Amino acid sequence: MQADEMALWSDRLVLASLAALSACLVTYAVAAALAARSAGRAPAPILVGGPEALTASPAPVTSGDRANALRPAGTWLMASGAVLLVAAVVARGLAASRVPWGNMYEFGLTASAAVAVTFLVVRRGRRVDAVAPWVVALVLVLLGVSVTSLYTPVDDLVPVLDSTWLVVHVAAAIVAGALFTVGALATLAQMVLSRGGREGRGSSELGDLAHTVHLVAFPIWTFAVIAGAVWAENAWGRYWGWDPKETWAFITWVLYAAHLHALATGGWRRRAGWLAVAGFAAFLFNFFGVNIWIPGLHSYAGV
Amino acid sequence: MRTAVVLLILLAVAAVPGSLLPQRGVASDPAAVALFYRDNPDLAPWLDRLYLFDVYAAPWFAAVYLLLLVSMTGCVLPRCVRLWREVTAQPPAAPRRLEREDAHARLTVEEASASLTAAAAHLRSRRFRVVETDGEVRAEKGHVRELGNLAFHLSLLVLLVGVAGGRLFGYEGRVAVVEGSTFTNIASSYDALTRAPLADPADLEPLEFTLRSFDAQFETSGPRLGEPRSFTAVLDWVTSDGAGTTEVRPNQPFDANGTKFFLTGHGYAPQITVRDGRGDVAASGPVIFLPQDQAFTSDGVVKVPDARPTPVALEGLFLPTAARGADGIDVSAYPGLVNPALLLTAYSGDLGLDDGGAQSVYTLDLDGLVEVTGDDGDRWRATLAPGETVRLPDGLGTVTFDGVTRFANFQVARDPGKEISLVAALLLLMGLSVSLGVPRRRVWVRRVDDATVEVGWRHLGRRRCADSDSAALTAALEHDPDNHPESTT
Ligand code: HEM
User: Fold this and answer.
1) 3-state secondary structure of B403
2) Where is the chain membrane-spanning (chain B) (predicted)?
3) pLDDT tens, B122-138?
């Protein structure tokens, strides 16, 4: 197949994925509405406090049957959206004959795929439906912004980006970023659900999901930063130069370290949640803000 | 731990201003601080007093990370001692009420003592440390988690040593080399050389290289027209080890015994010959013009103090692909050499080179210089294509644009601490993965009566035990497949 044709297929797959994910969001919205209606008639959910809530109480049945029937359809649509996105990323890479992260559009595309896949993997075996629509919404926004304002046709890499370390560094950063995204959404959802000190089953499963995700993400992010330093040493002769991009990677890392410590500090659980959200904000700022507003060595990738 | 959280937040906040304000010694734009000073003459000196243009070398920044490291050492050393005691001790006895543990089960078995033996064997095969007593099995696993945690925290101290090594003993330099010219590695050859306080001045590796050629390729079509595609510099070098020829590219430096020359940029050096009023050649050769934009619109000056009877100076704009911009100003439209043009204006008079004051080779000191005007009384201007010659007014001489060569920017770095930093980084990563990935847990199995045993799990650390572990233990305890645990929490 011609490279041009491959690029076109990538674009088509992105559109198909946008459609699947939109349908998924609608499904979730309808399911939520049905569940809310039937919850009005069902007995109040049993709220159990304390750590036993983690595993002891069975899930209260509050949602209507139709809502229950819709949820798997939503998950199925989300999975199709994710598969289409992964295919789009692969097609883009084949079209360019290189890894598909040479510019902001490709970053956005790959990041969307990574978030969707990551969430599908970590949600298995957990009751975390509450956060699923938010993940889908976020992926849709990211994908929408990429397609409408960041789109660039397939092209070669600028020379300084053409390095094995780039592949390693960016791959790790994307995986860590996807995990951070899921972690931040789960943390926020958990904080909303447990407002006023209530710890429902949903909220503790979300907290557990967030914690697991952060434990995996932090070493991967550490690795991404180290790989970046090795790359910088290869490209510029110094492994750390406090370039804005490097600085914000450092800030992100320190905030997540603070988050992990806060979790181990008595009475700081909620503040720990905010620190994780702050770490994610720093990560996002590095991805968008630094590329767009702050001049530096890393701003050559083209917005 | 609260101290650690507070100091970590402080460290994150302290790092922010350095990314928003221009910083000295951050490579992206060496002139950024001077520019900020010019635009904010009132504010800048105050910011400077607070070290806000040197955030990462500021005493207050150092105070934050040193406090953090001291507090961390204070936390971690006592943990080392405790870990040592725990590693050498036996797993502790079961608490009286196992149902209070993180997970608990009561199982009906055929023969309790046989089940205990089976449980002990099973746990040993899963690499638990196991102690069997009369009627109780005690087991523990995952001390390596603590070891990882300690390795991780202590690696931060090693990292500090590595970073300090570079800061105290290393050097960093920048130099622009024109095609065909030779660079000799001595301090005076550099355009800029920053040496750490303890670096040995005699430490510069003895070497010499000539830039044989420099080639740059740019995107020739599409929306990314003009974006760089490849750079290659070819060097003929001589070091103490011998001589050779090497290609240097981005990500692929020239390495001379650990001193590495990185290709970080390039530009054009028009070859200009100036004949003075008497017709003698007063200046000739390539002149480095500094690129101002992505399309290599470049600025440069030619100082000709030896011109007789009157010294002259030229200010020029070099356009590799000359085009008329929308506002009527000449700019370059493409970084490659498609339609090269040299735009000149001239000055005459005292160049101020004799009074000993330092001057940049890239700018003119206009004191004592007079703008050269044409016959119409307006400022004299000329546009030259390669090979063309133009006559200066007032019998000042002629200028010839002989052709175009390129120059390459090299960044030179020597950091004696970087191997230490790399080791620290690997230790950090390993320690972290172990510390976050390995759960540490204890389990007790107790005989209640001949046909009942009780199991209690405790996780030390904040992660739940893997369910597979407790399921496998349960399976090992049960001989009878019809047997069901009464409760699993
Ligand atoms: C220099 C900055 C520091 C960084 C980047 C850092 C990072 C970390 C990380 C990533 C963990 C793993 C968290 C977990 O097990 O969930 C951790 C654990 C720990 N840190 Fe730090 N730390 C730092 C400084 C400190 C300081 C100053 C202290 C003492 C006050 C400290 C004491 C501890 C302790 C006791 C643990 C174990 C917590 C547990 O196992 O639950 N750390 N640290």
Assistant:
1) strand
2) 51-77, 150-169, 420-438
3) 899 888 899 988 889 99
The CA distances from residue B421 to B257, B414, B429, in Å, are: 19, 14, 12
Q: Touching check for A302 and chain B: CB below 8 Å?
A: yes
With a 6 Å cutoff on the Cβ, whether B435 touches ligand 1 is: yes
A94 in B contact zone (CB under 8 Å): no
> Chain A closest CA to B402's CA: distance in Å?
30
Nearest to B294 by CA among A67, A161, A295: A295
Average pLDDT rounded to a whole number, residues A285-293: 79
Q: CB of A138 within 8 A of CB of A115?
A: yes
Which pair of structure tokens corresponds to residue B399? 């200028």
Side-chain half-sphere CA neighbours of A301 within 13 A:
24
- Parallel, antiparallel or unpaired: strands B103-108 and B487-488: antiparallel
According to the model, what pLDDT value does residue A60 have? 46
CB B458 within 8 A of CB B442: yes
In chain B, domain spans:
1-84, 99-142+441-478, 171-414
CA gap B421, B70 in Å, rounded: 19
Query: What's the whole-model pTM score?
Result: 0.81
Contact residues on chain B for A292, CB-CB shorter than 8 A: none
**Contact check, Cβ <8 Å, B27/A241:** yes
Spatial CB neighbours of A184, under 8 Å, sequence gap ≥ 6: A276, A277, A279, A280
Measuring CA to CA, how many Å separate B272 from each of B283, B316, B422? Answer: 8, 11, 48
State the DSSP code for A287.
I
Q: Does domain B99-142+441-478 have CATH number 3.90.1150?
A: no
Cβ B9 under 6 angstroms from ligand 1: no
Separation of alpha carbons B154 and B79, rounded Å: 12
Where b means 16+ CB within 10 Å and e means fewer, A281-295 reads ebbbbbbeebbeebe
Could you tell me the CA-to-CA distances from A129 to A39, A133, A270 in Å, in that order? Answer: 16, 8, 22
* DSSP state at residue B234: E
* Residue with CA nearest ligand 1 atom 27: B72
**How many CB atoms within 10 Å of residue A52?**
10
For CA atoms B388, B389, B393, B396, give the dihedral sign: positive
* Residue A67 structure tokens: 């809502």
The pLDDT value given to residue B84: 87
Per-residue burial over A33-45, b = 16 or more CB atoms within 10 Å of its CB, e = otherwise = ebbeebbeeeeee
Tell me if B428 CB under 6 Å of ligand 1: no
A–B interface: beta-carbon pairs under 8 A: 149
What does the alpha-carbon distance between residue B284 and residue B315 come to, in Å, rounded to a whole number? Answer: 15
Q: Could you tell me how far CA B481 lies from the centroid of its own chain? A: 60
Give pLDDT tens digits for A9-64: 999 999 999 999 999 999 988 888 887 777 665 444 444 333 333 333 444 444 46
What integer pLDDT is reported at residue A158 of this predicted model?
65
DSSP string, A255-275: HHHHHHHHHTSTT-HHHHHHH
- Measure the CA–CA gap between A38 and A60, rounded to whole angstroms: 13
Please say whether the dihedral angle defined by the alpha carbons of residues A177, A183, A187 and A190, taken in this order, is positive or negative: positive
The reply to whether A297 touches chain B by the CB within 8 Å rule is yes
Q: For ligand 1, say whether the CB of A257 is within 6 Å of any of its atoms.
A: yes
Helix (H) or strand (E) holding B151, with range, is helix B143-169
Residue closest to A218 by CA, chosen among A169, A138, A288, A279: A279
- Interval between CA A259 and ligand 1 midpoint (Å): 10
Closest CA to A129 of A200, A198, A44: A200
Which of B264, B286, B247, B250 minimizes the C-alpha distance to B406? Answer: B286
Considering chain A, what is the average pLDDT of its residues?
A: 82
Quote the CA–CA distance of B125 and A5 in Å, as a whole number.
Answer: 56
Looking at B94-206, which runs of residues are DSSP E strands?
A: 103-108, 129-133, 136-141, 171-178, 182-184, 192-195
